[in-house]
Amino acid sequence: MLISSLENTYLLILTIFLLIKLKFLGFFFINKKNPMLLFCMLFSIFFAFSVGLTVANFGSFVRLRLPELPFLWLAYLC
After folding, report:
1. What is the pLDDT of residues 47-57, one digit of tens each?
2. How far apart are the first and last CA of the chain?
3. pLDDT tens, residue by residue, 21-45
4. 71 pLDDT tier (thresholds 50, 70, 90)
5. CA 77 to CA 58: how far, in whole Å?
6. Most-buried pick from 9, 28, 44, 62 (CB within 10 A)?
């Protein structure tokens, strides 16, 4: 549980840093040039938000967010 919570904290900080760096609203205008990046970020944010709202158990949350991670990391790498 500790390792998973550290991973989630790291991903949250990385996401917040990315959105602040791109000035959040400017993010959507900048990424019209790269639609794959826009799709990856929007899918990751929507999927994580919906899973976080519906799952009360942290262990289930860790398993259910796995489909989101490849898209999130791809968005960070672009």
Report:
1. 888 888 888 77
2. 30
3. 766 655 555 566 777 777 877 888 8
4. confident
5. 27
6. 44
Within a 13 Å sphere around the CA of 61, how many CA atoms are in the beta-carbon half? 16
Tokens of 41: 């970020």
Between CA 42 and CA 61 the distance in angstroms is 19
> In the chain, what is the greatest distance between 2 CA atoms, to the nearest angstrom?
39
Tell the residue number behind the tokens 């840093």, with chain if given. 17
The tokens for 60 are 């289930």
Please give the helix or strand (H or E) that residue 67 lies within, else none. Answer: none
